[in-house]
Design brief:
Blueprint lengths: L1 H8 L2 H25 L5 H23 E4 L2 E4 L8 H4 L1 H18 L1
Antiparallel strand pairs: 1-2
Helix pairs in contact: 2-3
């Protein structure tokens, strides 16, 4: 249970979800466009393998580093419960949604 809480705290689960959605989209676009350009069949296999290795790299990267207002920091450098970094997830969510809300209101 503590491992799952640590994955959530480090945003590894969120990163995995975003990566999988992006990889699925890339595969769908490739599946549509590769036949149009008469690309060899092995190209799709290479894309899927590259995305699989990239998935592992993205998980490791999201485990080691944390996105803070000061930029990327190693997770060990951050003190647990330190106030400037405690609301990073909330601030990132607000930055992503506030411009959309402003456009709807106008």
């Amino acid at each position: 249970m503590r491992f799952l809480a640590e994955l959530k705290r480090r945003n590894v689960i969120r990163m995995a979800g975003l990566y999988l959605v992006g990889a699925w989209l890339a595969v769908q676009v490739a599946a549509t466009l590769l036949p149009v350009f008469e690309a060899p069949a092995w190209l799709m296999k290479v894309l899927v393998v590259a995305l699989a290795f990239g998935f592992l790299a993205a998980l490791v990267f999201s485990w080691i580093y944390e996105l803070t207002p000061a930029g990327l920091r190693r997770d060990e450098e951050l003190v647990s419960g330190n106030e400037p970094y405690a609301g990073t997830e909330r601030r990132l969510r607000l930055r992503g949604t506030l411009p959309a809300r402003g456009n709807v209101a106008q």
